[in-house]
Amino acid sequence: MPARVRAAARHAGWLALPLALAAAATLPSVAAAQAVAVAPTESSAVAKSIRDQVGGKIKNFYRQRGYWPIWVTDTGVAPQAQNLVDIIETVDVDGLDPDRYNPDRLRRLIAESESGDPKALGYTEIALSAAFAELVRDMRNPRIDIRYLDTELEPQRDKPEEILRRAALAPSFGDYVARMGWMSPLYARLRTALAESRPAIEGPPVEIPPGPLLKPGATGDRVALLRQRLGLDDGNAFDDALAARVRRFQASHGLPADGIAGARTIAALNTNQADPAPDRRALLHLNLERARLLPGAWTRHIVVDAAGARLWYFGEGSEQGTMRVVVGTPETQTPMMAGMIRYATLNPYWNVPVDLVRKRIAPKVLAGKSLAALGYEAMSDWTADATVLPASSIDWRAVEAGTVEPRVRELPGRGNSMGSVKFMFPNDQGIYLHDTPQKALFAKADRHLSNGCVRLEDASRLGRWLFGQTLKPKSSAPEQHLPVPAAVPVYLLYFTASPAEERITYTPDTYGRDAEQIASR
After folding, report:
1. What is the pLDDT of residues 366-411, one digit of tens each?
2. Cα dist. 63→90, 122, 159 in Å?
3. CA 460 from centre of chain
4. What pTM did the predictor assign?
5. How far apart are CA 483 and CA 487, in angstroms?
6. Where do the DSSP E strands lie in 5-149?
7. CA-CA distance, 265 to 261, in Å (whole number)?
8. Interacting residues of 460 by C-beta distance below 8 A, sequence separation 6+
9. CA proximity to 470, closest of 346, 293, 323, 289
10. Buried b (16+ CB within 10 A) or exposed e, 271-305
């Protein structure tokens, strides 16, 4: 992906939203956009041009903002327009067809608008918005399935006007486009890695000799080799089709996408004309699809990576924190699913898995230890209305033999396996995020050690992020439930390739999921 796509391209002048609107947009939302009306800019010829030409699915977006443009100014085209076209040129990385969004037409319109003609600027503005909305809809469309515990998290095909409103409410629309703010930062980083890993070859191995710049209108043997190199029909003319292929190659290899084959472009074309790591590219593709399931960073959400045993949390347009976690073993895997964290439980009990009751607790009770002294109590059943049973009423030899499976829970306290808090997203598998007293586990390289739940390196920090304050129980009473002020999505995913600082980290496929999913794509 070109460097300028990754850069923060800021725009100025009357393109910037009014300060009151930006202040109201801590989290871009359709509701916020509808609540703030932008007064029509009758003095702007470009706004009048947009008003006269816009129609269809995006007309309401412009009407509600007084036909205020987001891609152009009243004198020319803003940088985010070129950034959008550069992204479109490389969407084959995303499994999409660049031609669906007609990048050649968009570049032509941008060039025609450099004259500053209001009618041309208005037409270009509308074309860019239409292409952008379609691109975002397609890029956000998931290709793999996970279990959604809440219907509000299930993927939706947003309306074009909703996509544009969310984008326009970003504090910097230029940054939003350059950083692909509609996608997760994890997706954007993996996408960059995939684009940079692609082989230079897009046709048969061909060596193009050095020489003058090759640009539209040129002819000759070197042009014929360039056409062959980029997989076009035989010929020796540098036509529009060749210019488009050159731009696409440049954009996907970090070169200025000007459609002119200079020395740097020719060198890139002549270098590395075979794929050095097809297996790794397949792995990047798979993990890109997993990251496609995630919302953009303007949505507050948590991501748990069960492969790398890490957690990230996002909001306000960027990653806001990360920590190590302990996740399920290969036998008791942490599942891929998404839910809403709705409350925290302070001073929690821990319902001990029946196999651990059999292996660890029953032998100690049979050896003469008191169940209460061990920090546990037995319950009548697994319902919310269960009552405490005397430990003496249970046949512990039958428990040890595996013929009786009583419910046993660990009492709250410093040594409780849940620690001081657990964060709940209701599900029928008993999976949640929780504190732990076993802090030494986070120093291990392999942290696949739990029964499926997610143990947190710093539960207090996550609690402060979720609630905006330090969580403290009101008393020593067990199971104190505290609703999250606004429910927060949590995604339990599985990344065997993921961003880490300035590189991509490849993680062992502990659960053995990759091969089957790659084969099924």
Report:
1. 999 999 999 999 999 999 899 999 999 999 999 999 999 999 999 9
2. 32, 14, 16
3. 24
4. 0.78
5. 8
6. 147-148
7. 5
8. 420, 421, 435, 470, 471
9. 346
10. eebeeeeeebbebbbbbbbbbbbbbbbbbbbbbbb
